[in-house]
Write a structure and sequence with these properties.
189 residues; 8 helices; alpha/beta
Length: 189
């Protein structure tokens, strides 16, 4: 299992667990934010297009995001596999990613769904705002982010459950080590 998508609500630990899993698998981890920053910095056509939306405070459209992800996953660094973190976020993105990977003959091996109770997520993220001064992690903002996740991203999980890609639900409330052990155990790593 070398092509994996990490999913879960804000604060579930996707970045941390994705980085550890990528290390264990010997592949790269790609986060949406990092990919967008790299595409902008490289000055690619799609990167500049994404920059124009981001600078205007708008979401980057699905077609642009899919193009940027396609470029990243077509790179030699991605050929042994990858862990995607933060993408896809919508059903349209999941459908587009699936079609793109099927055309390339490299379908996803699994979707890892980190599940953590809302009260634990609020505790984790609110604590992060105190340490890092992150305004997007204030308790009221966290609740809004969780509502957006439920509205926009949870349907992606259901969409994947209707495909051949296994969706592996992992309890993300334990220690970093415990959660990673569960992920690797479910993947047979």
């Amino acid at each position: 299992m070398k092509r994996v998508v990490m999913m879960g609500p804000p604060g579930a630990g996707k970045g941390t667990q994705g980085a550890l899993l990528a290390l264990a698998l010997g592949v790269n981890r790609y986060s949406t934010g990092e990919i967008l920053r790299e595409a902008r910095a490289a000055g690619s056509k799609l990167g500049l297009e994404a920059k124009s939306f981001m600078d205007a405070g708008e979401l980057v459209p699905d077609e642009v995001m899919l193009g940027i992800i396609d470029e990243a996953l077509a790179s030699p660094e991605a050929s042994p596999g990858y862990v995607l973190d933060g993408f896809p976020r919508t059903v349209a993105q999941a459908d587009g990613l699936n079609a793109m990977l099927e055309r390339a003959g490299r379908p996803l091996d699994a979707v890892i769904l980190l599940e953590v109770a809302d009260d634990e997520l609020v505790r984790r993220l609110s604590g992060r705002s105190l340490v890092d001064g992150r305004a997007d992690d204030a308790p009221e903002t966290v609740l809004r982010r969780l509502a957006v996740y439920a509205e926009e991203t949870e349907p992606v999980v259901e969409w994947y459950r209707g495909t051949a890609v296994p969706v592996l639900s992992i309890d993300g409330s334990g220690s970093i080590e415990t959660v990673q052990s569960s992920i690797q155990g479910q993947l047979g790593v």
